Amino acid sequence: MSKLVIIRGEDILNLIPQRPPIVMVDKFYGIEDDCSYTGLTVSPDNIFIENNRFKEPGIIEHIAQSAAARVGYICRQNNVPVPLGFIGSVDKMTIHTLPKVGEDLDTEIKIIQEVAEITLISATVKTGDNLIAECRMKIFLKKE
User: Fold this and answer.
1) 63 near 109, Cβ under 8 Å?
2) Is the C or the N end of the chain the one with fewer CB within 10 Å?
């Protein structure tokens, strides 16, 4: 996947339901096959920073919002409302290291299975070539 950012900054708010200070995605790179790609520059004013590190709940929220950005992008492309999503479960979660302030997270969301309003994803979060975290997440979409 190309590292060309197609949506960044405040425009991300069109893809996800979260609003500051809880926005944990600041770049959307796009979708290729069954994968989507997002990013986050870890800023010192992030609410999940402790001792200059991005804490575990922030990483989990970043993964969930990365999945939401994929859905939001598809919905915007099809001119349909962006649904709310909820984390149903997180499993096989491994956090290898906590990113430092100033580091750029690059996240891949891979769709494992979609059934009705339930989507199972796998996620990998990296800084450069270093694996930060990986997990599987079940997400429920609230259809209107």
Assistant:
1) yes
2) C
CB 42 within 8 A of CB 62: no
- In what helix (H) or strand (E) does residue 38 lie, and over which residues does it extend? strand 35-41
The answer for residues whose C-beta is within 8 angstroms of residue 96's C-beta and 6 or more apart is 130, 131, 132, 133, 134
Tens-digit pLDDT string for the chain (144 aa): 567 999 998 999 999 999 999 999 999 999 999 999 999 999 999 999 999 999 999 999 999 999 999 999 999 999 999 989 899 999 999 999 999 999 999 999 999 999 999 999 999 999 999 999 999 999 999 876
Domain spanning 7-142, CATH class: alpha beta
Give the strand pairing for 84-95 and 53-54: unpaired
Cα–Cα distance between 27 and 121 in angstroms, integer?
19
- The reported pTM is 0.95
